[in-house]
Amino acid sequence: MQMSSKHKYGLYVLGILILTLGITLTIQSDLGTSPFDALLVGLSLNVGLTVGSWEIIIALLIICCNSFLKGERLEVLGLLTAFITGIGIDLWLFLLQSLITPEQWLSKLVCFGIGLVLVGIGTAIYLHTNFAPIPIDRLTLIIQELTSNKYTIFENTHLLCILDYGNDIQWTYWHWNFINRLFRRTNIKLLCVTY
User: For the chain, which terminal residue's Cβ has fewer other Cβ atoms within 10 angstroms, N or C?
Assistant: First the structure.
């Protein structure tokens, strides 16, 4: 069954808003985020600007890299996805900053768990529309295609490059990698969609 354009774009935006709510909850939990989001938070804390602003800036750089690697024109729709994602993250951080501040381990864990589930659901919804991929995901696919390597080999390599940014990000990567491996062993793919 074919989706109407209005329905498709509505699901696209809804998926990104759910995704960004999940990202925000993982940030607010203070237990860790995905490596890419940890990079954005680290840049925000150490350099300035908002997490959403860094999402857009890094996405623009990755889109230029993607274009160079493929020898094609810039994928402007990927920038649209990054723009909506950046605005969504900043919006949720602003709205939830004073409402959700988990202090105890249990509340942090609940916030983190809900965030992971929302990231998976939001990603599945927005990818279902097949409209515009997030630039970092596109980069992974391009390098996989160019090198004929398996996705997980490249995923681990480029995530390790992100870790050079700081000690907090290294802990975040270990935490995220542990959770991904745990859920991969149990064949729960919904949460692994997040990265």
Answer: N
